[in-house]
Amino acid sequence: MIPRIDAQALAAGDPGAVAATKAGAQEIGFLTVYNTALTAAEVEAALDAYRGFFKLPVALKEAVNMDRTKSNRGWGAQGSEQVDPDANPDYKQVFDCGFELPAGHPLAARDLKVYAANQWPDGMPAFQRRISDYYAKSLVVAKALLGDIIAAVGGDARYFEDAFSAPMALLRGNYYPERPAWAGEKDFGIATHTDYGCLTLLATDGSPGLEVRKRGGGWIPVSAPPGEFVINFGEMIEMWTNGAVRATPHRVVGGDAERLSIPLFFNPNYDVNVAPIGSGEVIEAGVHLTKRFNETYVHLKGD
Ligand SMILES: O=C(O)CCC(=O)C(=O)O
Ligand SMILES: [Fe+2]
């Protein structure tokens, strides 16, 4: 069972919401939440904006194709990402944007690919504005939820203070066309993977497709209408919290209807130490994330 959580009750410390959150984070590693600061209308606006982008002629999307850069900003065509080395590259398309450091920020001098400049399509100011607005608001929602969830599992909030002032947070529009006729058993909308970072705040158009791997085998379908969110945890926070929250594999096989989803991958600043708390080790968050990007984006393989 994937618990469904009232975000405001959780924030207020309601014992039922706290207990359900703790169980979901520690057992299945997935939750759904409602009653956040992001409204259904704001999610619908972002979905519409992405839908418009993905329906553009290929030549216009090519103008912002990330494969001509050394980073992951802009359009990722079908086949641009291979999240499972045992499967074929995914048949979804994506559009990625992320955090841009303010001028003069100490991390700016390091020319880090996780803070690369965004690539926006020309002549689409409404697209850029809507997605940028959604990005800004989703950062606030994700940060608040992460704090509440860490508290619910009994974590020490001090470790997370100041860790998200320049978040390596990536916002993605996922476009799954109808499952192609040529698709075989190694072809997926997105193949089985765990997310790489801390918390994923996932909005979808409400259609089914996402499946979560059950401990002990089998798959659980999960869906949420616009205005509700699927929450899951990545490898980084599982490591950082010594397994207090779980990074659970999931996938989208795809079906006979197109589908859109919008994950925000919420991650800390590049130089935050995400080694297991108390271990005395040092693992820079940005090093882990860059390694995973280089393993999975086809155009970055070998970097
Ligand atoms: O589209 C979905 O529901 C899930 C997408 C996903 O797992 C991802 O982008 O990491
Ligand atoms: Fe994922």
Automatic annotation (TrEMBL):
<keyword id="KW-0479">Metal-binding</keyword>
<dbReference type="InterPro" id="IPR026992">
    <property type="entry name" value="DIOX_N"/>
</dbReference>
<comment type="pathway">
    <text>Alkene biosynthesis; ethylene biosynthesis via 2-oxoglutarate.</text>
</comment>
<dbReference type="InterPro" id="IPR044861">
    <property type="entry name" value="IPNS-like_FE2OG_OXY"/>
</dbReference>
<protein>
    <recommendedName>
        <fullName>2-oxoglutarate-dependent ethylene/succinate-forming enzyme</fullName>
        <ecNumber>1.13.12.19</ecNumber>
        <ecNumber>1.14.20.7</ecNumber>
    </recommendedName>
</protein>
<dbReference type="GO" id="GO:0009693">
    <property type="term" value="P:ethylene biosynthetic process"/>
</dbReference>
<keyword id="KW-0560">Oxidoreductase</keyword>
<dbReference type="InterPro" id="IPR050231">
    <property type="entry name" value="Iron_ascorbate_oxido_reductase"/>
</dbReference>
<dbReference type="Pfam" id="PF14226">
    <property type="entry name" value="DIOX_N"/>
</dbReference>
<feature type="domain" description="Fe2OG dioxygenase">
    <location>
        <begin position="165"/>
        <end position="268"/>
    </location>
</feature>
<dbReference type="GO" id="GO:0051213">
    <property type="term" value="F:dioxygenase activity"/>
</dbReference>
<dbReference type="Pfam" id="PF03171">
    <property type="entry name" value="2OG-FeII_Oxy"/>
</dbReference>
<dbReference type="InterPro" id="IPR005123">
    <property type="entry name" value="Oxoglu/Fe-dep_dioxygenase_dom"/>
</dbReference>
<keyword id="KW-0223">Dioxygenase</keyword>
<comment type="similarity">
    <text>Belongs to the iron/ascorbate-dependent oxidoreductase family.</text>
</comment>
<dbReference type="GO" id="GO:0046872">
    <property type="term" value="F:metal ion binding"/>
</dbReference>
<keyword id="KW-0266">Ethylene biosynthesis</keyword>
<keyword id="KW-0408">Iron</keyword>
<dbReference type="GO" id="GO:0102276">
    <property type="term" value="F:2-oxoglutarate oxygenase/decarboxylase (ethylene-forming) activity"/>
</dbReference>
<dbReference type="InterPro" id="IPR027443">
    <property type="entry name" value="IPNS-like_sf"/>
</dbReference>
